[in-house]
Amino acid sequence: MGARRLVWKAAWLADHEPDVEPHLVPMAFTHACRTAVQAATVAVHTQGGLGVTLESDVQLFFRRAKGWAAVAGGPTAELGVIADALYGAARR
User: Fold this and answer.
1) Which whole-number Å values give the CA distances from 73 to 30, 42, 56, in the listed order?
2) Is pLDDT above 60 for 90?
3) Exposed/middle/buried for 28, CB within 10 Å: 0-12, 13-18, 19+?
4) Would you tell me the crossing angle of helices 24-47 and 2-16 to the nearest 10 degrees?
5) In terms of Cα–Cα distance, which of 31, 18, 13 is closest to 79?
6) Which of 40, 78, 87, 92 has the fewest beta carbons under 10 Å from its own?
7) pTM of the model
8) How many other C-beta atoms are found inside a 10 Å radius of the C-beta of residue 85?
9) Mean pLDDT across the stretch 40-52?
10) In 3D, which of 80, 85, 87 has the Cα closest to residue 13?
């Protein structure tokens, strides 16, 4: 629930007031990626051996959660963007 609200707020601010909190979009991405991967991992582990078979839909969610994050650069890459947005002005 927290990732969804953070994404909604980040999307609204990016659309209506992009200069107010520019760090919120990478924060939402990072949090949503980590939440999706954690939820999919727990689901795979809960189902045991069935969770990694092709007959189970859980393996699709796991692959998508890992793949979507990798295509966009991954949540770790966004941490530098967040740090620059929050503390970049203080370092200069």
Assistant:
1) 10, 23, 27
2) no
3) buried
4) 150
5) 31
6) 92
7) 0.76
8) 16
9) 86
10) 85
pLDDT exceeds cutoff 60 at 62: yes
CB atoms within 10 A of CB 13: 17
Mean pLDDT on 13-41: 88
Task: Mention every residue, 6+ apart, whose C-beta is less than 8 A from residue 6.
Answer: 24, 27, 28, 31, 32
Tokens 């770790």 map to which residue? 76
The set of residues, in sequence order, having a beta carbon less than 8 Å from that of 25 and lying 6+ positions away, is: 10, 11, 13, 14
60: number of Cβ within 10 Å: 11
For 63, residues 6+ apart whose C-beta sits below 8 A from its C-beta are none
61 with 43: CB under 8 angstroms? yes
Whether 19 has a pLDDT exceeding 80, the answer reads yes
CB-CB contact of 23 with 82 (8 Å): yes
